Amino acid sequence: MNCAVPEPTHLPLLLLVDDKPEELRWLIPLLQPHFRLALATDGLSALHKAESLQPELVLLDINLPDLDGLTLGRRLKASPSTAEVPLIFLSAHSEPAARIEGLGLGAVDFIGKDAHPEEVLARLRLHLALSRRLRAAESPTRNAPTSTPDQALLRSICNHVQAHLDQGLSVAAIARHFGLSDKRLLSLFREQLGQTVSGYISEERMRAGQRLLLQTRLEVQQIAPMVGYANPANFATAFRERHGLSPQAYRQSLRQGSEPVEACP
Questions:
Q1: Where are the beta strands (DSSP E) in the chain?
Q2: What is the pLDDT of residues 214-255, one digit of tens each?
Q3: Which of these, 51, 1, 7, 4, lies nearest to 206 by C-alpha position?
Q4: Reported pTM
């Protein structure tokens, strides 16, 4: 089986969400020289892909299965991991009420499907440039060495957790590794992150599981111990409780349609 030539990794990633992508044949060839494209054909898989892939832009329709585009937009804006990703609606439903609702939830633009393809591309590139300029303006503040000792300590602990998800992490073991009391460690996470240590570890295990399901062909039985679950059934149960889908169903939903960003076997 022949694989397509991989798209340049330096191109920005655009998540395109439409339940009838074949109707966008007028647009996709124009986008491909400028973006890496990821496709979702329903709202739920779009939500998962946005969280996993972290695109620089999301271009979405309103009429979608599972979650309509407006509901999807609200959920993306409510999630800390996707709140800053610019949302652009591309819809045949461009009456004022729909446009106002879409822009009101935080979208940066609302484009009718009757727009000229070159206009769509121009708007996308404009919003991408504006988003990058805003992040660049904020980065000196974000990167300035103003972190407190507690924040620096927390970063070290989080890095340690992420690097040892396959091990039996516990509050006592982590505290001992960093020379802290259990109480001090619990207080640090509560004050800096607003969550428990065990809650953070669980979230990191789920995020790592998501990435492995998306980016590899490993079986669930192989992924489970890599993210700290000795029993694959326990991993599957925890994953279903978090995402509403089994790991297998989640992987299948992510790989629906064309997925140019996925590596060839």
A1: 13-17, 36-40, 57-60, 87-91, 109-112
A2: 778 889 999 999 999 989 999 999 998 887 788 988 887 765
A3: 51
A4: 0.54
